[in-house]
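Data availability (excerpt). The following record was deposited with the supplementary files.
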Amino acid sequence: MVLTKMEPKSRQAGKPLLVMHRRSLTIADFEKDLGRSLQQLHSGRKKLNNGAESVIEIILPSRPSDEEFQRIEEVASQKLTGQNIHRLTIVIPDAEGGDPDYRTYAANAAGVVREDALLRDIHPLHAQTIGLSRWTQNFNLERQDFGLFHNIHAYRATQKGLNPNDSKADRRHFVIGEHTGLLSYDRFDGELVRNQLVQDFRSIKGGQKGGFSKESRLIWQWLPFALRESGLVGKDFDPFAVGVLAASPAELVEQFHIDEAKLARAAAVYDGKVFSVPEAEQLAKNTALVMKRLQESYAQEGEARKLPALADIFFRSPIELSDEEIKLLAFRLTPQFMGQQLEKTVLHFNRRSPSGAIESYIAEIKIPRGSRFEVNIKPVLDAPAHAVKTPLEHKRAQQQGRGKLYVYDRVALFNDVLKEFYPKGNLPEDAVQIRELVMDKSGKLNPVLREVGMNDIGKVAFHVSLKLPKGGDSAESVTREFAVIADDYTFQAGSQGTKEGEIYRALSRYAEEKGIPKLYLAETSGARLGLAEEVTPFISRDDEKGVNYVRAEDLQKPVGKTKKPLSELLVVGEPYEAKVGKGEEERDESRLPVQAVIGEGEINSESLNASGKTGESESRARSVVPTFTIALGTVIGIGTYDTKLSERVIMVADSFLGLTGRKAINQTFGTHLKDELEVAGPEIMRENGVAYKVAPGERDA
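Predicted structure:
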């Protein structure tokens, strides 16, 4: 039994702690040991009299059963309620010598001592380190326990002061993954690298395009950095261009005009470079799995839309990586989180400075949405509390992360542009009138007054009126009106289903009836294919078997708006068993391969039929009124057809207007296109006559 006084680093860090440490020889001794600890703590507190908060920590000899855990909580409540004890923490050793688990008990709002579920498996002193305190100021937290990994913690955050079901409440998911042990590093051997590069190079020259081993792909992924470091390409060369990082060995050979002499020179700089950190890669994989389960838990409640999510990955031991090695590690971790609607993924790590001091850093990973993969590495500063965001702010942040404007902000650009037509920018109050149009049950569009961002489909319609000065000395103005249909990329990537098709056709009819031009602001991923949102969160991939599967335990869960069992919305095959978890946490999981998705709403044929009708309406409108399209970002599939059918097309400089991407074209035709803009970018579309103009940015367009 040890009594320890712990002083905070600063007044802002909190009160001093008086901690009683004790080890119980048996679980049965816990009640007696807790009573003795309480007596010693009261005695020590009287002697110090410094306002310290009293803490008891007891190490158990082994992991208690569920019944024993229940008894521990009962004893803690009986003995500690009303005793002015800040907390009791139970330390549970790992049978295989790994990190321990924790249970923390403290007085709740009613003053009764109960387990603090937010701190399950987290030491309370570490909770601040991993950022829980940044959430609790503005959010109520609910811990989600999936029983998968004791070092990964999942939470749902709900804005304080509002009902959790309020549509205006800021709700988010976040997952924290920790690795507290030492990290191991797989490093290149320069001689082995040279031999492998030469062997692969000769295979490529012999006609091999793919089929390289994982080890070879890791070596070739490093080649652009080695070429720069060895002086074979300029120092200003950017190896983090997505097209370079994702290029195949054959594409790299062609792009850099590789020969065996260059490979030998580049191989010399490989020696000792880290190409893999197994513990980090496994932690990212497990963290992504927990994030997926967290999103599933929300889908079960009938809300298929994923909440904005954040993933924080912590490495407690100092790492031995350069900035370049950290960025490449981040690039390999990123695919684990694709499709999770993450606002941010952050790596937290420590480094030794030249003086030997431990310094803390973070690496913020930006999921590639443009031509460059970005990782921002910076020292850790005192981070503020997570601020509350409205759903509208989340949507705007999502678009800003892609370098784009939110759909309503795009239409509002007319106010900014029209100022150039008036002396000194003195725009009359009624110069720009924008009315949102909403479709009623009969399919007719009507103007409405509602808050920005209240649309529940992926397209938004507007009637825009502009008053332009006649020019010269005349004080008169001329009114120009037009109908606008705009894609909302924050709604399922702007994909088109039946409702989107209906409002597109309604807007075309509206323009024809009013006799005004029609403008399409395009940014869409095409027809909504196979997107049964209520089902997809439960489907996972088994790479070893090469199948998509669902867990047997999920089949009877009510999902979607109809609350039907998941089993009625899928066609599955024969079940099989798989191992999940490690060590004491390893268990069998029954899985069933997914053979078909039925869903409860529209998938595939319904969306394709709707898409076909938009093309028909676009062709008809073109024969009646002027039609224009501005391609503001990625435009794929039916969006491309609708765009091509309009009379005039303007493209923003970084937009894409195609039926498919470069990977499909490379695989089909054996080409080596390295960027989507080489397939259907503005310059290509201007040369072939599709694009009438190319504008530098959205405002210019």
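Summary of structural features: The CA atoms of residues 575 and 592 lie 4 Å apart.
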